[in-house]
Design brief:
With 229 residues, the chain is an alpha/beta fold. 41% of the residues lie in helices and 20% in strands. The protein is built from seven helices and seven strands; from the N terminus they run βαβαβαβαβαβααβ. A seven-stranded parallel sheet has the order 3-2-1-4-5-6-7, with helices on both faces. Helix 1 crosses helix 7.
């Protein structure tokens, strides 16, 4: 399978890549901002190619990214949007620059990425957007995460819209809203909190869902949480 993991240099995304790369029949394109982490992945796996991408400024990198994808993939079977960015600040202390950075990285960037990849997708392809329980309607909300949660809620709503738009093409679009997972991002938001789920465990779940979830679901926002946080 040809798989794209958007945001695979650390945490859950890195674990997703580690799992999917174990199958030599999978060819995986991994994006991220950390060039060293990307180089490490490429050195570790012969079936991984990488692209250094900053989702907050994806428009300036579109041409090079499209060329890379088309030079390596004739089609794309799976796109997993894992990339995320969090600044933990109270709403009244968050300036417009920080707010836009979170929206660009967590919503506009993944949306732009879907536009780039969709022409390569055929019937039976699967797009998986990774959001947060913070953006899941009716879930508990926390101080300092208003813009982050709003950006993730936007991506969840986009999932529902695209599932309808892409239905005639046979492309399924789903969203996993994650609860507390032991990652650097969780530590930044909730210092000292210990999550009941490891990044590796969640990575295994996401990888399996990306491969098989579209057989049962389309346009769904599925909470994946033992705790929140």
């Amino acid at each position: 399978m040809n798989i794209i993991v958007n945001g695979g240099t650390r945490g859950i995304g890195r674990e997703v890549v580690n799992i999917l790369a174990q199958n030599p029949d999978n060819k995986i394109l991994v994006t991220g901002r950390n060039r060293k982490a990307l180089d490490d992945l490429k050195a570790q796996y012969t079936n991984v190619i990488t692209a250094a991408i900053d989702l907050s400024d994806i428009d300036s990198q579109t041409d090079s990214l499209v060329n890379l994808i088309r030079n390596n993939f004739k089609k794309a079977d799976i796109l997993i949007n894992v990339a995320g960015f969090l600044i933990s600040k109270d709403f009244m202390e968050t300036d417009s620059s920080d707010a836009r950075l979170m929206m660009e990285t967590n919503f506009f960037g993944p949306a732009a990425f879907i536009r780039l990849i969709k022409p390569l997708m055929v019937s039976g392809s699967h797009i998986v957007n990774i959001t947060s329980m913070g953006g899941f309607q009716g879930s508990s909300k926390y101080s300092g995460l208003s813009y982050y949660s709003a950006s993730k809620a936007a991506l969840a709503c986009l999932t529902e819209c695209l599932a309808m738009e892409f239905q005639p093409d046979g492309i399924k679009v789903n969203c996993l809203a994650l609860g507390a997972v032991q990652t650097e991002m969780l530590e930044e938001a909730f210092p000292g909190y210990k999550a009941p789920v490891s990044a590796k465990e969640m990575g295994e779940f996401i990888a399996e869902f990306a491969l098989t979830g579209h057989k049962m679901f389309n346009g769904k926002i599925l909470p994946v949480a033992l705790s929140n946080p």
